[in-house]
Specification:
heterodimer, A: about 400 residues, alpha+beta, Cytochrome-c3 Hydrogenase, chain B, 2 domains, five-stranded antiparallel β-sheet, three-stranded antiparallel β-sheet, 15 helices, B: about 170 residues, alpha/beta, Beta Polymerase, domain 2, five-stranded mixed β-sheet, two-stranded parallel ribbon
């Protein structure tokens, strides 16, 4: 059979993070994957060395539009590690609360898109509708739906009001009901079982070797969560109080990745509730002065996995080196293990399963010696939806899917 | 884990690295900084990954006066300690054994450090550019202190696959 090369990427006008994949195909089976990144390299690490210690959180907040509090969080933890100080308790609890609300809305965003990819557009609409409640709560608490700017070196930038916390409690109650409904929908649906189980398996050995983090490694049975292993801020006390637990499953396929995210959303809801109920009074900021010479590392468990920041100071008002590592940097190379041997119709699903940005699947050209055609994202999604149809037919279920 | 238990992890790390350690520091219970010689670097990394089960979070390169400093950050997840392994790679040779040769987690980050700082990782399985385009002129390392704003004679290129179809 003729070998085919299928390039995907690199540019998409709507979303950030362009990537370029080349899938080497044998018939419909992927035999090899090659990834190229760097089409949107913005040089944040170099830019940070030209800004003062207090300006950097605003810069790193703009690295990602969805997990926007994760980068400043990891950065302030790194600088606090350099200084050897801890934020006052109320400051710590506020930062952790914003971090967890972000996890809820990020996982709901992913759940919606995953539903869209397999043809369940109802899941898509509903997940994003329930996400709005959390975004409203974020706006009440911080003043913004996203880009909260709540982290500063030594504490939180601004206090939260009792009224906003009560509003958040209401949003969490409503979200708990809807997340449980989603959980039932995922676990009970025979089509989702058939469609997602055993697809794109990432083995435990591969997850360890590639250093995969967050909801990419935990479905493969790797218990890595820096909130638990290296607890910071309010995560230590809440874990001791049993407010939440780390979700780990064993199979490593797309189904488990979806299940881990939905279960984690529930745990985050419990944790947010605990944080609001136990919110201490007092100062929110340690009022840090000059940053001395030294180095520090900080990491925060973002929705997609561990965000890692390293800073080095020479005693001036700027860092001389600031290293940023986003979770997708470690998670993307796992495609080499999880896509090989899979069908091309599943590729959109597997690439979505680690929750990168979706721009990669927009512009697709099929290149072989004899012909050249172009596929759009719609075509790729259509292939994925058609496969779901076939499974429904096979198990003799009347299709609820919208006609294409 | 309590702070006392975390301070005990120092003995484990010292035992795993053995005579390779040049200097060792644990400024806080959950942070260890160990320095090894340039030639012993791959061996020390192997010890941290295989003997202690460290997860390679990422690595950092930074330029100092006559060398590039490499820091590999290993998270010891069961102990809850972040162990940073450092070495100095001397200029102008800037050659060090590749960790990506046996640990896939180091593959991409070594490609990034190679193109941004000009460090050669001997034995790397895939020494292409990662973030910079393939047509990037040799000898231009953007994160170096002496780097000019834009290299001479550089034109943007599309990925190979599209170039072939453009005739």
């Amino acid at each position: 059979m003729k070998k085919t090369t299928l390039p995907i990427g690199p540019f998409h006008p709507l979303l950030e993070e362009p990537e370029f994949f080349t899938f080497y195909l044998d018939g419909e089976t992927v035999t090899k994957v090659d990834l190229r990144i760097g089409y949107n390299h913005r040089g944040h690490e170099k830019l940070a060395t030209g800004l003062t210690w207090d300006q950097v959180p605003f810069l790193v907040e703009r690295i990602c539009g969805i997990c926007s509090t994760s980068h400043p969080y990891a950065y302030v933890l790194a600088v606090e590690d350099l200084l050897g100080i801890k934020a006052p308790p109320r400051g710590q609890y506020i930062r952790s609360l914003v971090g967890e609300l972000e996890r809820i809305h990020s996982h709901l965003l992913w759940l919606g898109l995953a539903g869209h990819f397999i043809g369940y557009n109802t899941v898509w609409m509903w997940a994003w509708r329930y996400r709005e409640e959390i975004l409203d709560a974020c706006e009440k608490l911080t003043g913004n739906r996203n880009h909260y700017a709540m982290c500063r070196v030594g504490g939180a930038r601004r206090d939260v009001t009792r009224e906003a916390m009560d509003f958040t409690m209401g949003a969490l109650d409503s979200n708990e009901r809807s997340t449980k409904m989603f959980l039932g929908a995922v676990v009970d649906d025979p089509v989702i079982h058939k469609r997602l189980k055993g697809v794109g398996v990432l083995t435990k050995e591969d997850a360890i070797a590639y250093g995969a983090v967050g909801p990419t490694s935990r479905p493969s049975g790797v218990r890595w969560d820096v909130r638990e292993t290296d607890p910071y801020d309010a995560y230590g006390p809440s874990l001791e109080a049993g407010a939440w637990k780390v979700i780990v499953t064993e199979n490593g396929d797309v189904f488990d990745k979806a299940a881990v995210r939905v279960l984690e959303t529930l745990e985050s809801i419990y944790l947010c509730r605990w944080l609001i109920e136990n919110m201490p009074d007092g100062e929110i900021d340690a009022h840090v002065g000059n940053i001395p010479e030294g180095e520090g590392c900080g990491h925060h468990e973002a929705p997609r996995g561990e965000v890692f920041h390293y800073v080095r100071s020479d005693g001036s008002n700027k860092p001389i080196r600031h290293k940023v590592r986003a979770p997708t940097f470690n998670n993307l190379p796992t495609y080499k293990a999880s896509c090989t041997g899979e069908q091309i119709a599943d590729v959109a699903l597997i690439t979505a399963s680690i929750d990168p940005c979706y721009c990669c699947t927009e512009r697709v050209g099929v290149v072989s010696k004899s012909r050249r055609t172009s596929l759009t994202q719609d075509d790729l999604v259509k292939m994925s939806v058609e496969k779901t149809f076939e499974i429904e037919k096979k198990i003799g279920m009347k299709s609820n899917l919208a006609k294409l | 884990m309590t702070d006392e238990e975390k301070y005990m992890v120092a003995d484990k790390v010292k035992k795993a690295l053995g005579a390779l350690i040049v200097s060792f520091d644990q400024p806080r219970p959950n942070r260890i900084y160990a320095v090894v010689a340039q030639d012993d670097f791959p061996e020390a990394n192997r010890a941290l990954f295989e003997k202690l089960g460290g997860r390679l979070a990422t690595s950092t390169a930074l330029e100092v006066r006559d060398a590039v400093e490499l820091i590999y950050h290993y998270m010891l997840e069961t102990e809850g300690v972040l162990c940073n392994l450092k070495t100095l790679v001397a200029k102008p040779g800037l050659k060090v054994g590749s960790i990506g040769a046996f640990l896939p987690a180091a593959d991409w980050i070594e490609r990034e450090m190679a193109e941004m700082y000009g460090v050669t990782f001997v034995g790397h399985p895939d020494p292409r550019h990662l973030l910079l385009p393939d047509g990037w002129p040799d000898g231009n390392y953007p994160y170096r202190c002496d780097y000019p704003q834009k290299p001479d004679g550089f034109e943007e290129q599309l990925p190979d696959v599209y170039q072939k179809d453009r005739k």
